[in-house]
Amino acid sequence: MNNSFVTLSTVMLISSTSLAVKGENLPKDFSPQQSKAIAFTENKGQVYDQNYKPRTDVLFGAMAGNMAFHLKTNGVSYQLYRVDSYKEVEDLHALTSSASGKKRKEIDQQTIYRIDLNWVNANKDFTQTTDQAFEGYNNYYLESCPKGALNVRSYTGVTLNNLYNGINLHYYEKEGKLKHDYIVAPNTDYKQIQLKVEGASVSVNKDGSLLLTTPLGKIQEGAPIVYQNGKQLKAKWVIKTDSEGSGVISFEIENYNKNLELIIDPVTRLWGTYYGDAGNDNANSCATDAAGNVYLLGATDANTGTVIATVGAHQTIYGGGAYDAFLVKFNSSGVRQWGTCYGGSGMDVGYSCATDATGNVYIAGFTNSNTSTLIATSVAHQTVYGGNGDAFLVKFDASGVRQWGTYYGGTGDETGFSCSTDATGNVFLMGNTSSNTGTVIATAVAHQTVNGGGPDAFLVKFNSSGVRQWGTYYGGIGNEYGYSCVTDATGNVYFTGDTGSNTGTVIATAGAHQTIHGGGPDAFLVKFNSSGVRQWGTYYGGVAYDFGHSCSTDASGNVYLAGYAASNTGTIIATAGAHQSIHGGDVHDAFLVKFDASGVRQWGTYYGGAGSDYGHFCATDATGSVYLGGYTNSNSGTVIATPGSHQVTQGGVYDAFLAQFNNAGIRQSGTYYGGAGTSYFRNCSKDALGNLYLAGMTTSNTGTVIATVGSHQPLHAGNQEAFLVKFTSCVSLSPNVSVSATLCEGAPINLSVNITGTATPAYSWAGPNSYTASVQNPSISNASTVHVGVYTVTVNNAGCIETATTQVSNVYTTPTVGVNNGSICSGNSFTIVPSGAITYTIQGGNFVVSPNTSTNYTVTGSSSEGCLSANTATSSIVVNPLPAITVTATSLTICLGESIVLMASGATSYTWSPIALSSSVIVSPSISTVYSVTGQDAIGCENATTFTLNVDACIGLSEYTKSTGIKLYPNPNNGLLYVELPFDATLTILNTLGQIVYNSKYNSGQLQMNLEHLAAGVYVLRVQHEGSIQNFNVIKR
Length: 1037
Known about the structure:
elongated; single chain; Immunoglobulin-like; Neuraminidase; 79 strands; mainly beta; nine-stranded antiparallel beta sheet; 1037 residues; ten-stranded antiparallel beta sheet
C-alpha cells in the first residue's frame, strides 16, 4: 500500500424506530436498491422540503432500513419514520372484479423525527467522489423540479474529499449497515473532526458506544474503531456542550503516531453469492478477464432448472454420474451472464480455470466420462478417453461457446489440477498421472519422458488452437502430485505440488534453495522456460508432512509458493524475523514463501494458530501485494484476522481465511470468512481494477455471512454450496479535481487532480470534443465553447481505479476593444475613449494625455468575468505644431503724431489686441505701446506674439530732415540710436575734436547703432551718399 492514513470507523445501529419533525422528502424510489442494499442517490433537484421547495443543500440521500439518510453541505441528517396508525380504504387498483370491494391498509398517520450532525469548522470547498455506480438511472418530474431531474444515478458509496484539512469522509454500506470512515492523512490533526448534534441528547454507554436519545427513541453508534500499523488503538468518544447547549462530539485516540504509515480496512467485501442447489456443490477456481468479468468453476450434482446452467448454454442438462463440472460467468457487479454444465455419465470435476488476453476461458479438471463428444471435440489433441480417469482441458469463448476440448491421459489415472495461460495465447495444463504409455503424457524430447514411479506430476503446453507443443513428467520413485502452475511475463512456467521422491536431481536441481528431501512429503517448486527446459527446482519442507498447493508470480518476476506444513524445524519453513517464524500448533500451519526468479528465497512465514490451518492458494496484484488464503479452525486473537477486518472472529468449525502481505512479507490485513458451518477458500483471482475474487465451498447458512443481500443467490439452497465473493483491497486516493477558475476564450484550460498519500498512479482524462490526456495535470490550449462539459479523470493505482469529475460550465467570450483616434495642437490634451470591455488598461495609465509629438497609445480591456481582450487597440494621436506668428513694421519707432502699418504673418486668421481682426493694422500711438496678435492656422492651431512700437518726441538737434527722408531717434539717446536711411550710405561719427570714432557702410532701411562705448556728449553723424554729405548732431547721454 502506498497510502498513509487512519480510519475512524463507526457503524450505525438502530435500536428503536422513533422520529417527529418535518424534514427533507425523498421520492418514493429515491434509492432504487433500498430493498436490497444501501444506495447513495445524487440530488439533482428531486429532494424537497415540506413546501415542495428544492433542498439544494442535500448532496446525496439513502435509505437504511426505516431510516432516511441525507448527506448535506454542512453535515448529515438521520430521519426515521414510525407508522402511528393505519386506515382501511377500498382497493381501487384491484385487477379482477372478484377483488372489487376488498379493503387495503393505508397509512393514516406517521411520525417523523430528524437528527442533525453538523460538522464544526469544516471546509466549505470540499469536493465529492463516488464509488461504483448502480446500473440504470431515474428521471424525476416533481413540483420541486418541474423541468425534470434527469439521469439521477445511485452509488455504492461517496467520499467527501478534504472535509477537514487532510481528512476525507467516506460513507458506504457494509453488511447492510450504513458505515462511515474518516480517512486521516499523515501529519494531520484528527481533532479537527467535531460534530454538533441537534435534535438529540448525547451520552456514552459503558461499552463505549455513543447514544443519541430523542423524544421518541434512541440511536446507537458503536465505539470508534481506530487502528494503525496493523494494531488497534484505544479510542473513545468525547462529548462537550457548546454555548447554545448542543452536544459536540469528537474523538480521543491513545498512542496515535501521526508520522506512521497506516493501513485501515484494506479488504472490504463488495458482494458475495452462493451458487448451487439442494445437493453438493463445490467451487474450486475463479478467474477474471480484462473486461472485469469473473468466471467460477467447480463441480455440482444439481439438476434443477437454471440453477447451474442458463438457457441456451453449451450444456444445459446435468450429464449424470456423481458430479458434473460447471462454469459460470458473472460481470463485475455479480450479475450472472451465463452458466453451463460440463460432463457426461461419469464423474466430472472442474479444478482450474484461466482466461487469455482475448477473452477466452480455459477449464481443466478430472473426468471418467466416455460419452461421445461431451468432453473432447472431434478434432482435439486426444478425442478418446484413456481409461481410469483422465484429465481434460477445454476452451470457451467469452460467450460460453466451446472452441475445443481434449482428454489428456493414458490407461492410468490422471487429474488436471491447474491451467494457466501466457501472453502469447498458449495454455499450460498441470496435474498428476499414473500412466506410462508412450507419448500420451510426455513428448519424445521432453524434460522427463517416462514415469518415475508411482504417480508423477505432469506439465503440458498447448497453443491456443489446442495443439500440444510439449509435455513432460515430473517425478521420481516416490509419489508426486502437481496442484498448481503459473506463467510469468516472459513466458516461463512454474508449478508446485508435493513429492515423496528423494532421487538425485529429479526434483531439486544442484545449487537450489533445498536440494535434499526433508522427510515425509515435501513441497516442491520448479521453473521451466517456454520451451519446456527446466531452469531450477527445489524441495521445500522438513521432517514432517509439508505440501505445496499454489504458486503465483508478480510483475517483478518473483514467484510465491503457498501450502501447509507440519514441520517446525528452524528456518526450513519460515525465515528469521518473518511475520510468524514459529509454527502455531496442532498439525498443520499454512505457509507462504517468496523466491526471486533465480530460485533464491527472499522470506517465508507460517500463518496459523493453535488449530489446523491450510494454505490453499496465493495470488499477487499489481501493487506488489500477495494474498494467502485457505481455511482454518484457529481462533487465537489476531493470528488469523486483524482488527477492523471484514470478519474478526471465527464463525464455525472451519472458516475460510484471507491474509494480505506486502512484498516484504509484512502482513497488511487478515480476515475470517464463514458462518456456523464449514467454509473453505479454494482459489482467488485479482482483476485489473484491484478487486479480489475468491471461490470456495460452505455449509454455512447464516444471514449475510457468505452471500450479500441482492446478490445472484443470497440464500443457501442445500447441504454443501459453492460460493463466490468479491473484495476490494484498494485504498482510496481520494482524487480531488479542479479546473481553472474563470475560463476565457483562447486561454488555456488547466485541469488538475490531487491525491492523498505518496502513490504514483496512472491518469487518464476524458472530456468534451473527444478530449483525452494521460498526465496528472493536463492543459487544453485555446479554450472555446466546444470545451464546455464534464471532464472525468480515471486514477489507476496499480489496478485500483477511481474516477473523479469536474465541469467546465462556461467559456467566456473575450472582449474586442476599440478606441478613438485624433489630433491635437501642440500643448493641448487629448481624452482616449475605449469601448467593448468593462475595465481598461492604457499605456502610461492615463486616459487624458498631452504628448509633445505624434504618439500611439495601446489599450487592453477585460470583461466582467475578468477575460482579457483578444486584441490590443491603438489610439493614434497626431500633434500639430503651432503656427509661427511674426509681426513686421517699417520702423520700430515712430515720432509722435505719425502712423505706421503693423503686418502679422504665419497664420490664416489673426486677432489683435487691443485692435481688431486683420492680418495688418495701422496704428498711431501717442506713447510706446506693446501690441499682441493671436494667429490661427487652417487646422485651428493658435499661437500669439507681441510687437513693441516706440513713440519718440523727435525734438533733438537737427535730428530730423524731411527733405532727405533720413530719420534718427531717439536723440538724445542712452547708447542706442536708430537710423532710417532711404538709400545706401556711409555713416561716420565724429567727436568734438573732429576725430572719427565710428565709420561703416549701410544699406537702406532701419538700422541700430550702438553708441554705448562712447562717452556722454555731443557727436556729429555724417551721412555720405553719392557725393552728398549731410551732418546731424547726436547727443549721447
